[in-house]
Amino acid sequence: MAGGLAEERERVEEQCEGLARREQFVRAQGTETLTGGIITGRYGFTHALYQQVLYERLAAVRRIQLHRRIGEWEEQRYGERGGEVAAELAMHFERGQDYERAVQYLTQAGCSALWRSAPREAIRLLTRGLELLMALPETPERAQRELALQCALGSTLAVTKGYAALEVPRAYERAVELCQRIGSSRAFFPALAGLWGIRFLRAELHPAKELTAQLSQLAQSTQEPALLLWARTAQGMLLSTLGELPAALRSLEEGVALYDPQLHQPGGVQIVAQDPKVICLSYAAWTLWRLGYPDQAWKKRYEAMTVAQELAHPFSLAFALDFAGAGVGMFLREAPLVHRQVELLMQLSHEQSFPYWLAWGIVRQGWVLSEQGEVEAGIAKMRQGLAAIQRTGAELSGSYILAQLAEAYGKAGQIAEGLQLLAEALARVEKTGERWYEAELWRLKDELLLAKTRDSTQQEKRRKGEGVMRKARRVKK
């Protein structure tokens, strides 16, 4: 109040104390320690109606002046810690018609909301930032601010609608357009990273490979640690998916070595909305299992889960529960472990509204049911989960899910259906280049063909036996 009124703090305090004693409008609410150890009283309106009426009685120009002064005072008070009250600062500067600073703090508040796993709030803040931006003249600075907003919005929409949903590329394509206008290689990185995430999740791996090369080139040119970290993360993810396992493991280990918690803070460079160390450790676990090192894979799985739990970041935890927890558990055929991880994943995804991870949880549930002998129910669940994943626009790991379905059909004795699914999975491998599970596809195909041969042999033996029995009965007659 003193900052907004440009009055001495002690005089304002006396006025508030007098009003509180007389029970007029406000009541005392304890004290607060400000920067520098200054202790001041806190007061609140006794009823929201008083605040509303008194606020509306102020002249419009006076309200604008007060909001701007309060925003400037709080900005000075918090300094570099302004992000802690970014939403409040944005409100004051918007109402104070200082739209440039309002947009700045709306961007910070939106990124902070995303990191706190409040994506709907983040979308509201970032969308409002884009609306206010239109009130500013077209300058390079405005383009820079819009670029930050579009990248943050793309990442947020990926959480609420799925990585490859139609709304996500619109934000990143606009960001790329802005980058071309600005001509800054540093600014280009977040936009290209966002497009990379879309191509990757849509299993468009050839375009993703080209984008990976661009990201690596940009990171090398700047030598900025945050960019190098994300470039290695993207490279490791892509190489692992393409089946280039030793090279993938090297990139993922380099990503872990580059990791610094301060590099992945709200407003930082993001490819997807998870923590990069959780991604690198989880992908390293999958890669080690495929290279034939299950014990090392288990160790990486544990590290990924530990980091995700320590971060207390729900979206990163969902990634770890699915990818490291349930995923590695399925490789090792640990159905009870997978069941526990999936229960946690489903609960978290329902609470936080994560459609992509919820869909994967349904697929994992189906596998557990199949392993427990409830094969028909498991098949239905896996098909339900696959359809839900595809509704988000994602196609990555489609061949892997088809393989789990084919295996379940084999258990149900429906060999022809299983072989048909494997043929579809192998066709996807050739189309996309996603070869990380290809060896297992061929193994499953051989097993089903052997089962088919055994069935044919048994049927032939039964037919021959039945023929012998009929002949014997005729002779007896």
Question: Please, could you describe this protein's structure?
Answer:
With 477 residues, the protein is mainly alpha-helical. The protein has a domain at 1-57. 77% of the residues lie in helices and 3% in strands. The protein contains 22 helices and two strands. The protein has helices spanning 2-5, 9-21, 48-57, 60-78, 86-95, 99-115, 119-133, 140-161, 167-182, 185-201, 205-222, 225-242, 245-258, 276-290, 294-311, 314-331, 335-352, 355-371, 375-391, 398-411, 415-432, 438-476, and strands at 26-33, 39-45. A hairpin with a 5-residue loop joins β1 and β2 (39-45). The protein is elongated, with a radius of gyration of 29 Å. The model has no long low-confidence stretch (mean pLDDT 89).
Key descriptive features of the protein:
477 residues, mainly alpha, two-stranded antiparallel sheet, 22 helices
